[in-house]
Amino acid sequence: MINITLKDNVVKEFTPGTTVEQIAAALGAGLHKAACCGRLNGEVVDLRTPIHADAALEICTFADDDGKKTYRHTASHILAQAVKRLYPNAKLAIGPAIENGFYYDFDVEKPFTPEDLEKIEAEMKKITKENVPIDQFSLPVDKALELMRDEPYKRELIQEHAGKGEDISFYKQGEWVDLCVGPHLMSTGGVKAFKLLSATGAYWRGDEKNKMLCRVYATAFPKAAELEAYLNMLEESKKRDHRKLGKELELFAILEEGPGFPFFLPKGMILKNLLIEYWREIHKKAGYEEISTPIMLNRALWEQSGHWDHYKNNMYTTVIDEQDFSIKPMNCPGGMLVYKTRMRSYKDLPLRMGELGLVHRHEMSGALHGLMRVRCFTQDDAHIFMTKDQIKDEIKGVVRLIDEVYSTFGFSYHIELSTQPEDSMGSKEDWDAATGALRDAITELGYDFVVNEGDGAFYGPKLDFHLTDCLGRTWQCGTVQLDFQMPERFELEYTGSDNAKHRPIMIHRVAFGSIERFIGILIEHFAGAFPMWLASTQVIVIPIGDRQLDYANMVTEKLEENGMRVKVDARNEKVGFKIREGQLEKAPYMLVIGDKEIEGGQVAVRSHKDGDQGVMKLENFVSRALEEINARAF
Ligand SMILES: [Zn+2]
Ligand SMILES: [Zn+2]
Q1: Which backbone phi and psi does 48 adopt, to 5 degrees?
Q2: Cα torsion at 114, 119, 124, 130 (round to 10°)?
Q3: Burial class (CB within 10 angstroms; exposed 0-12, middle 13-18, buried 19+) of 231
Q4: Can you tell me the distance from the alpha carbon of 455 to that of 438, in angstroms, rounded to the nearest whole number?
Q5: Nearby residues for ligand 2 (ion, Cβ within 5 Å)
Q6: What is the pLDDT of residues 560-589, one digit of tens each?
Q7: Is residue 225 within 8 Å of residue 196, measured between CB atoms?
Q8: Catalytic residue list contains 383
């Protein structure tokens, strides 16, 4: 018998050769039905995998990332099978699971139309109803090439693999076979709810020198209700698309003359400056000093930092006085130079230096996406220089600060800890101490966290903050990165209490990440209806007619005296029309002024979020609005 260690360290005996699927079945009918794949001693395996020796086994369901991938990759096979049934001449490329779904690339004469997608989806439903068993088999390279004689893309993939001396793995369902290493569900009936979302062009292997294929994007879920919820979320995110709202609300523009280099329009600039003001306020409170380092520095510096050798492809370079220069892709090297402008003593540490640094990084034009993926952005960076025994407290401080930032906008978040990769700098001892400090800091603050083993940068472990917006989408924004390498490379020093020279340890950290991207996230999170403290126009005053204009101007003045951003809509239009337009502009409040309001020194208040608030004294509105602004309520 073999001992299988299962969830919660429960050990069970099985006969050698028992498969992952059989073990799932032995554990219960519910788990058997939900099982998508296994993790055997940490490695993802197919349900069909027989186990011959003692091992640790997890059964992965759709709730698990690997399970999700298996489920959706199986759905991608069903998509390809359906396409082959309807379009026998289509050539198959690849069809992986991706975040939130899957795709398959086809070489077809005409790209699929929405009507085609409907037909394909109907055929997929048939295939899942047929509940055909899915089987795995392997062939030597020559037989594999023979089997795929009509599939040029598959042959190319097989040929690439040919030198490895391994057999080629296939999965078969009914009449259809695909080159595939799996894993897969046991039968096509395992896939319950799916939807084809779109068909777009995509080059074979992402290379524009290759043929343009037709990529079908789709998603799949175990339950129809989950699919429904996801499709609603997609619909809602389309409405909230920051590129669309950014244009409608006149916040920013991205023009042909500067692909990936956003322009901020007056209203967007108000928003950006408010975020920066807020950032300065909380950093000052947390004991940070602010610096600013040049946007362009010479090649020698980038060589010293290692960027010239390892990051040059993403850097914009130029020549000044016959010397190579680079526009900074990161603020760190400049920060190092500031540290070195004077002697540092242990009494100066920890030294927290913040910088709102404008960095430029080259991105492929195809990867650019509104404010979310740009070529230049403002990092809300900071570098903290400290002694070894200050690490934990400093990390706690940073985590508290990031928590404050996200809570201010109503984001929830989770933390991921990335540990030492195989190829890394620094001693094992340093790594253990640093990773331990990160772990202890967040544990002591009461956080649960996900560990990404081996996912740290080569120069140190890190914490990533993934925030969740109101549609349940996650965005990686904040990071806290420990670094042993940079102080070494730049020979940073401080004088210890023993009067000897020591090397500080440093933290790189961001809270917003990129201010531009954070603005993109905020636009979508709030659907453009920003909280009072962030709105570029906070109040629109609407006089019913000319007669009320003087009073409206007086109201406006009073609000402006209190620091509010106000506008009067004095146009000769009907009140209903002005209110509808104000609603589209998403100002938090509209104040409607008629004769009655003038008599009582009042305003009729309409909130964007909560509708009609009735009539109130002007002073009461002012104090209520100020309260809302000062609390940064959302
Ligand atoms: Zn496959
Ligand atoms: Zn840095």
Answers
A1: -80, -5
A2: 170
A3: middle
A4: 14
A5: 332, 508
A6: 999 999 999 999 999 999 999 999 999 999
A7: no
A8: yes
Of 34, 77, 321, whose CA–CA distance to 194 is shortest? 77
Q: Which residues contact 309 (CB under 8 A, 6 or more apart)?
A: 303
How far, in Å, are 214, 326, 330 from residue 360 at the CA level? 33, 10, 8
Q: Measured between alpha carbons, how far is 363 from 346 in angstroms, rounded to an integer?
A: 41
> How remote is the CA of residue 330 from the centroid of ligand 2, in Å?
6
- Where does 28-113 have alpha helices with state H? 29-34, 65-86
Ligand nearest to the CA of 46: 1
C-alpha 71 – ligand 1 centre gap (Å): 11
Nearest ligand for residue 507 CA: 2
| 379 is known as an active-site residue | yes
∠ Cα 109 111 115 (to 5°): 120
How many angstroms separate the alpha carbon of residue 518 from the centre of ligand 2?
Answer: 18
Q: Which ligand is nearest to the CA of 181?
A: 1
Q: Point out the catalytic residue in the list 307, 344, 508, 509.
A: 508
pLDDT tens digits, residue range 590-621? 999 999 999 999 999 999 999 999 999 999 99
Instruction: Confirm whether 32 is a catalytic residue.
Output: no
pLDDT surpassing 90 at residue 62: yes
Task: Please give the average per-residue pLDDT across 416-438, as a whole number.
Answer: 88
